[in-house]
Each structure stands twice: as structure tokens, then as C-alpha cells.
Amino acid sequence: MQLQQILIKELLILSKARLAKTKHRLICARCGKWERVVETNEVKNILICPYCKARQITATYYSDYDLPKIIQKNMHGKKLSSDEKHKFNRAWKVSSLIENFGKTAITVCLDMVLEQILQQEYCEIWWMKNIYSNKSMKLKGNML
Ligand SMILES: [Zn+2]
Description:
With 144 residues, the protein is mainly alpha-helical. Helix 2 (66-75) crosses helix 3 (82-101). The chain has one domain. The longest helix is centred in the middle third of the chain and has 20 residues, at 82-101. It contains six helices and three strands. The chain has helices at 3-19, 66-75, 82-101, 103-107, 110-122, 134-143; strands spanning 23-28, 35-39, 57-61. Strands 2-1-3 form a three-stranded antiparallel sheet. It binds zinc ion.
């Protein structure tokens, strides 16, 4: 494992207890049909969409009602606005994070993990600014 991955894992473990009660909206990033609001400690390790069998499950803040619509819009071949494109790309990146780290990835504030990864790999800090609500941004502030 690379050092960076070890650090991310450590961060995830440290934040685990604190975020057990955080609510997330899980959405299938492929079809956008399946969605479910769960508390962190209810998340199962292997997530598969019951509709399209995809393992690309993404997570967002629980009151995000737009993302499933954006995913479905894209699936039906409709043109996305640049804002929607950002959200869609972000959802895919989050889903690959969840695919790699499973439950552990959802256990932590995803924006914190993403920040680590993005700063080092993509240098797209701007990109994760809207990932979670202001409420969990404050939560993140408390953790650091
Ligand atoms: Zn699906």
C-alpha cells in the first residue's frame, strides 16, 4: 500500500465513531434510480444497485435531491449544464472511492478524504467545495 493510502485509511478510522450517526444519501451513479438515505453505521460493505446491478454507488448529503435527477438525465442522453456535469463527475469520483474503500469511505466525511486525495492527485480543491452541506463542513472543521 502506498503511504498516501495508509494515511487515508488512518484518517478514516479516526473519524469513524464521530460520523456513525451522519446521514447520507446513497445513489446508484449509473442509473440514478436506486437511492436510499442511511446513517453511516447502517451502510453495508458491498453496495450493488438492485435495478442495474452496478457497483458504482455514490454518496451525497442526505437532502441532495438533484443528483439522482442529474444521473438519470445523463443516462437518457440529455445534455447536462456545466454545473450538472460537475456534479455528475464528482458523483463518479465518489463512487470509485466507495468501491475501493467500501463502508470505510462512507464512514468518514467524504469531503475530507476527497480533499486529501484531490490535493495530492488532482489538484482540484475547488471541485469538492459543494460535496457536503455546510453543516458537515463545520463538522469537518471540528475534527481538524
Ligand atoms: Zn443502478
